[in-house]
Amino acid sequence: MGLENVKHVVLVLSGKGGVGKSSVTLQLALSLSQQGHNVGILDIDLTGPSIPRLLNLEDKKVTQAPGGWLPVKVHDAVQADPNGAITTTSSSRRGSLHALSLAFLLPSRSSAVIWRGPKKTAMIRQFVSDVLWPPNTDYLLIDTPPGTSDEHIAIVEELHKLAAEVETVTNGNGISLHIDHRPKLSGAVVVTTPQAISTADVRKELNFCVKTQIDVLGVIENMAGYMCPCCGEVSNVFSKGGGEIMARECNVPFLGSVPIDTGFGAMVEGATASQQASTTDGTSSNSEKPTELVERYKECGLCPIFADFAKRVDEKVQPVTAS
């Protein structure tokens, strides 16, 4: 089973396209990693994968290993020991981050995926069964396409199927033991934008969660206002509050609102250029800046917001671990 090293699985859903599911997935992953959790991102948006682009890892390829695929490493876990030295270890103040996407398997970023439903379903089953996530992966965040179609049905069926499997072994005394290797489908984070045209579609996604028995960990209202890059003041350019009203009417938790922050886009898009500059011109100004995305993200205006989201999601999930 490919998910035997994963403790908790969280789906990132939305019935509407263009609401920022991939950026929400990435920022939740970075925030959980900053809080010490080892995290994986699985991108099952097969026809429009965005995670490799957001990570600036489009040139990376998946490695084939005995037993399955190895996901692409984004960053290692890091620990500061009592003497102040920095070491890499799985038990750390900053967890590791790995990612897998169909884009890592395609010959180029411009390659089109023109597949019917059965082939999409087969690919997702392979993602679930044949990916070797690192040991002690605390969270696997699954970035999904918009809607409630083949990819969603396939991933939920596979996860529910795994949840029903318990291995039975017999010890030396002839006593049968039930060993639970099942990852926990902890629930879903649902993303919307404030406008009524978006919340109308996202309500269908919440209905999908009810029918497929997925707990909703919370609703995030994305693109709620515009954050000024100079002073940080948020202006409600479009509207605000639609996601909160929807969450209240559907009786699901509301995690909070996220403004549009041009700094996040600049951070992601400018990562490759700054990394290339630091390796080619050798200037101290570039080399002094953090090159890892997880470290640069600490300077982003959205970092405190998603740190709170990650903490609240973790608090909702951990009671499952304690039992």
TrEMBL record:
MF GO annotations: 4 iron, 4 sulfur cluster binding; ATP binding; ATP-dependent FeS chaperone activity; metal ion binding
Function: Component of the cytosolic iron-sulfur (Fe/S) protein assembly (CIA) machinery. Required for maturation of extramitochondrial Fe-S proteins. The NBP35-CFD1 heterotetramer forms a Fe-S scaffold complex, mediating the de novo assembly of an Fe-S cluster and its transfer to target apoproteins.
Name the record gives this protein: Methionyl-tRNA synthetase
Annotated binding of ATP, by residue: 15-22
Domain of life: Eukaryota
Keywords per UniProt: 4Fe-4S, ATP-binding, Cytoplasm, Iron, Iron-sulfur, Metal-binding, Nucleotide-binding
Region (Disordered): 271-290
A matching Pfam family: ParA
Biased composition (Polar residues): 272-288
Gene Ontology process terms (BP): iron-sulfur cluster assembly
InterPro entries: Mrp/NBP35_ATP-bd, NUBP2/Cfd1_eukaryotes, P-loop_NTPase, YlxH/NBP35
Compartments, as annotated in UniProt: Cytoplasm
